[in-house]
Design brief:
Helices cover 0% and strands 40% of the residues. With 179 residues, it is mainly β. Strands 4-5-6-7 form a four-stranded antiparallel beta sheet, with no helix packed on it. It has a four-stranded antiparallel beta sheet with strand order 8-9-10-11, with no helix packed on it. The radius of gyration is 19 Å and the shape is elongated. The protein has strands at residues 2-6, 12-16, 24-27, 34-40, 45-50, 55-60, 67-71, 78-84, 87-92, 97-102, 109-114, 151-154, 161-164. The protein has two domains: 2-125, TolB, C-terminal domain (Neuraminidase, 6 Propeller), CATH 2.120.10; 132-178, Laminin (Ribbon). It is built from no helices and 13 strands.
């Protein structure tokens, strides 16, 4: 799945399959300017930062069990969001510091370090990386990803795929080759 935020005409948090199909709104009320998003892959939670409402909130992958983690003026200048173990990590663009927020007790906010011009934060840890299994976009014997001549996108599961073409090409009737 692909998760993303939008604060155009109607602010929301959405998800879709990797090929863009099955687009679903998971949060579309009491949300104004969601600017950062983080996933808890193990427990299947979506965290987001709303800088207009000055809050960090969470829902499950279906948009249920919504909770506010923390709220207040200190959220106004935050950008980027990452989750690891019991904490959320974000960057305060005003004080140029990395903040750690306890995700079960949002009142525990600590500044960890100071950085210049940071706008995003990511946590890389072996336990957060999904194990790679065989999938529909693996190269075929000729080296084409998923048998697609240009681009292979996973769709509803790791066993299903959609072929797409680069700009200027159209997908052939076989659903795999580009012309």
């Amino acid at each position: 799945k692909l998760f993303f935020t939008d604060y155009g005409n109607a602010a929301k948090v959405e998800r879709c399959d990797m090929d863009g199909t099955n687009r679903t709104w998971i949060v579309d009320s009491k949300i104004e300017q969601p600017t950062a998003l983080a996933l808890d892959l193990i427990n299947k939670y979506v965290y987001w930062l709303d800088i207009y409402l000055e809050s960090v909130e969470v829902v499950d992958y279906q948009g249920r069990r919504r909770q506010t983690i923390t709220k207040g003026r200190q959220m106004r200048h935050l950008c980027g969001l990452a989750v690891f173990e019991n904490y959320l990590y974000t960057v305060n663009s005003d004080s140029l510091s990395i903040l750690r927020i306890h995700r079960y007790n949002g009142t525990d906010v600590q500044a960890l370090a100071r950085l210049d011009n940071a706008k995003e934060i990511r946590v890389y840890q072996r336990r957060t990386q999904a194990a790679v299994r065989s999938h529909a976009c693996e190269p075929d014997p000729s080296g084409a990803p998923g048998g697609c001549s240009h681009i292979c996108l996973l769709s509803s599961s790791h066993k299903a795929r959609t072929c797409r073409c680069r700009t200027g090409f159209i997908l052939g009737s076989d659903g795999r080759s580009c012309k």
